[in-house]
Structure formats: C-alpha cells, structure tokens
C-alpha cells in the first residue's frame, strides 16, 4: 500500500478543491434539496469562496 502525501494547499489547488467541496455538498444533500440546487454553476464556486461572481 502506498502512503498518502499530505501537503499544504496552494493557489493552483483552489479550483479542484472547490469542485470537490461542491460535489460533496451535492452528494450529501441529494434527495433533501430540490434538484436545481445541485447543478454546478461556474460563478457559484468563486462566489461561495468570497471571490468575484
């Protein structure tokens, strides 16, 4: 088995981390929220992180 590498997040990781966060939210709340709330909107990622939309 290979050991996991843990490192600090960099700016280059931001898009992927946001994508993972959104997919996790979609999975956790599937069936509890209306389907339109589960769609990924490009501006929603930056807006949720406090950046420009």
Alpha carbon gap, first and last residue: 42 Å
Binned, the helix content reads: 40-55%
Q: Helix count?
A: 2
In terms of DSSP E residues, the strand content is under 5%
Element-by-element helix/strand order: HH
- Please outline the major beta sheet: none
Average residue pLDDT: 77
Poorly predicted sequence stretches spanning 5 or more consecutive residues: 45-53
Morphology call: elongated
**Helix/strand/pairing class, anyone?**
mainly alpha
Strand tally is: 0
Over the alpha carbons, how many angstroms does the gyration radius reach?
14 Å
Oligomer: single chain
Layout of secondary structure:
Elements lengths: L13 H16 L12 H7 L5
Q: What does this entry look like structurally?
A:
The structure is a single chain. With 53 residues, this protein is mainly α. The chain is built from two helices and no strands. The chain has helices at residues 14-29, 42-48. The longest helix has 16 residues, at 14-29.
Produce a short descriptive summary.
With 53 residues, the chain is mainly α.
Task: Please name the defining characteristics of this protein.
53 residues; mainly alpha
